[in-house]
Amino acid sequence: MSSQTMSGTHHSSSGSASCMTATQEIELTARFAEQMAQLCMSQMYSDVTFIVDDVRLPAHRVILAARSAYFNALLYGGMKESQQNEIKLDVPLVAFKALLRYIYSGCMSLAQMKEEHILDTLGLANQYGFDDLENSISHYLRQVLSLGNVCAILDAARLYGLDSLSTVCHLFVDRNATDILKHETFYNLSLDSLICLLQRDSFFATEVNIFQAVFDWCRANTESLQNVDINSVVGKVRFSLMTVDELLTVVRPSGILDPDRLLDAIAEKISCTQLPYRGALWPEENVATAKFNSHTIIGEMRSALLDGDTVSYDLEKGYTRHSIGESGESHGIVVELGTVFIINHIKMLLWDRDNRSYNYYIEVSVNQRNWVRVVDNTKYVCRSWQQLFFPAQAVRYIRLVGTYNTMNKVFHVVALEAMFTESTVPVVEGILVPADNVATVECGAFVKEGVSRTRNVLLNRVVQNYDWDSGYTCHQIGTGVILVQLGQPYWISSLRLLMWDRDNRSYSFYIEASTDLKHWEMIADKRRELLQSWQHFSFTPMVIVYIRIVGTANTANEMFHCVHFECPSQDPDFINGERSKVTEERPPGDDGARPADALPADQQHSANERTAAAEADAND
């Protein structure tokens, strides 16, 4: 009977289960956290007591050790505290209570805490290794920065090595420098943080206001400066940026600067052409816009340059221009930014509705008297979009000067952007060293010579859709070439091309590079080999504007077909393999150039013709 009853019950349970959804996971974490929180600072099961500011705080060793490597070492690591039932701590009471509640519950209500207690808790989180809590508090503080708390938060961030929080604080201070200098909390700033601010080019305020605030800070912190050379603080002020009147009427009466240093500052201001200017910093934001009160002050059709329109331009409108003199001289196009900004990147669109190219240079200045040339492409033809990088510096005026146009005597610029960016490209001797493929239409490159059904199909990055009739660029072997012009000069050390490979044909070819269509350097010589499909090449880095691909043989017919070209090479295997190899040194005296008479006899004549034609084009 008992057996039958159990069997019946079993079947009944199975039947019920078939009508119900089984619960495979049980999650009652909220209830668990609530019950654990009830143990916080409770005598129940307590086995250790912390004494903070004479207040006894009961706790539980196993919970603390499980939540923190610091407490695990303190309570179970063989230290003297592991044998004590009462442990005295020299920490802020309110912050330690908040930390205990976090340890037991995983929660902390920062909005209900005073800022000073939040900063104390941040310090304890850093001290006891609660990284998640430290990051969460840092994130919260970034959201609540204000004139009244930024100095204290900056000090805390620097003290605890919180770089991301320090960066946000610095940016806030930079953009509110004038108001920060006047705020009472400025005088509570630590010496190290003050010096760090004064050294920043982006701490943008008038230097006389900076001096006055530093002078007042020194008077408010006389005790902390007893063992400090005051010149280590005052010396960070850039006196040469003040007017002579400010030096004589504000600095001199303060007595903080000796007469010789005062005279040195005046002399530097008068004689130095490049003073240590400060400027506003707006990372990753174009400051050459009406939003920042920037405008074009010299040039014809000025309004077009900064209007942001990079689409609606033609022969009649949509660009700013200036005439190019007989020897290339001109006042150029000048843009005045709304204030002095720190920039390291200029992006410029040259008029490109046809294949014309330009030579130009760019200068920057703070006062329109002393100019610094940051870009010099007077020796290289450029077209379409120009991506330009240079060392960060303070700039108020940008001067664009065209020196050559392959079509006429006018320099045309459609758009200009200026900014500070962290995403810089390496620059060697003023020329970019790209990692990404720059042989694209988007980068201003185009196919100058070569036959194809679709213009610039060689550079469209499509490597699948090609057949007998389309998807490639070609030339007749023995008479033509494929010639690619890049948008601007680049340091290039590798390239890759895809030759037409829908059957088993093979090709022979060579590749040359130039900056002026006159002087060519061989970078790949495959005239004595038969190759197919994808080909990769690396070579000694060189400045390149033009790439000439010359087919010399095809096992199927008299045409050379190329589907895709890129430089530098973007093939991952090639990047990880070939690029890591050390390029073999050339023999002494060998500059890599290959004269026409070094070619096979059947190609000497056509090579000479191409060279003569290129020189004629360049002269025209």
From TrEMBL:
Region of interest (Disordered), ranges: 574-620
GO CC annotations on file: cytoplasm
InterPro entries for the chain: BACK (IPR011705), BTB/POZ_dom (IPR000210), BTB_POZ_domain_cont_9 (IPR052407), FA58C (IPR000421), Galactose-bd-like_sf (IPR008979), SKP1/BTB/POZ_sf (IPR011333)
Entries under SUPFAM superfamilies matching the protein: Galactose-binding domain-like, POZ domain
Basic and acidic residues bias: start-end ranges: 576-594
Start and end residues of each BTB domain: 46-112
GO biological process, one term: adult locomotory behavior
Name this protein carries in UniProt: BTB/POZ domain-containing protein 9
Species of the source: Anopheles atroparvus
